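ENTRY TYPE: protein
CONTENTS: sequence, structure tokens:
***
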Amino acid sequence: MENKHLIMVALLVFSLTAPSLMNISLAQAASPAQDRVPAYWPTHGWLSATPESQGMSTAIFQEMQHSYMENNLPLDSMLVIRNGYIVYEDYPNPNYGQETIHVMYSCTKSVTSALTGIATNLGLYNIDDLALSFFPGRTIDNLNPWKEAITVENMLMMRSGLSWDETTYPYGNINNDVTAMTSSADAVQYVLDLPMVSEPGTAWLYNTGASHLLSAIITEESETSTVAFADQHLFGPLGITTRLWGTDQSGVCYGGHDLYLRPRDMAKFGFLYLNNGSWDGQQIVPANWVATSTDALTQLSPRQSYGYQWWIDQGVSSYSARGYQGQYIFVYPESSLIVVITASDIDGIISYYDIADFIDILIDSIVDVPPGIDPLVLGVIALAIGIPAAVAVIYFVRKRK
């Protein structure tokens, strides 16, 4: 009977002591996600963990999966990463898997923005430089003082002032400017020749053509293709080796669409931004560029803003890369959370706000755990703390006897 009591005491001490491990890094857990040092870098692959080990719920993910399967949502992949660990990964479409690249559509714009930040940091050019100065050998239509005043930053912010319409007519219709640009003999010339509708910097107008000019500028100033520049300065350091980037008739990578990456590599890009542009001791994208790019530079609605080719959702303190037919890279800095979604949503039934609202539910269910510690290490440390404490109690109880 005495031994039974001793065992019960030991277990009680263990149960009281082991959870104290969760307080070891409470100060770290309470700090902004961008200030945390990851437990590892997923350069050569992501590690997985149970949702519970990262303060999330398996049951919620099961409910989510049941919901999108029951409603036949055209999802191709969904990844959820918390504290640098994959806690949920699913490929509902049998045509896609971990190694399959997926078109990102306008998520490409956020990558082009990052490359622009890298290029300016290397001193190749400045964001205040005039756009037309990069194309001195071209004869440009509709030339006027407004067009001559367009800067790189104006294009990053979607404030170029150029006429553009990719919403009135569907993609594929020649009256859609994206289709007209990609169908023209010279996509860069097509954009440069457009008339002006406002003074640069004064009005926001979503313009995939301006994003293409950003890619053309990278090509001009780096004297290599945008994808080769990315391989050297962005994809390479992140361990992204499987990619495809479509080009226009002149070989310029489309700056606003047509980049293909694996969903896991899309998540790496999000993780880079979550960590202020830093990766394994190397500053890939300048930290100030990440901060400015994801800042609410243009207020579009009470909840939504736009930065440098990134969308900002002020309602939940997040930002995202977004693409046609349901491509998303969500970054939630305060929750150390990344959500990647790819889809083939031709009918437009996957609403951004529906997805954002569901991620809100995920975030509301989070119970914070110390980030930056391998889940296996948590168990080892718990044993290291709890067992000696239990032994000590047994020793002192027996000594009193």
Notes: Residues 375-400 form the longest helix (26 residues). The chain has two domains: 2-25+373-400, 96-347.
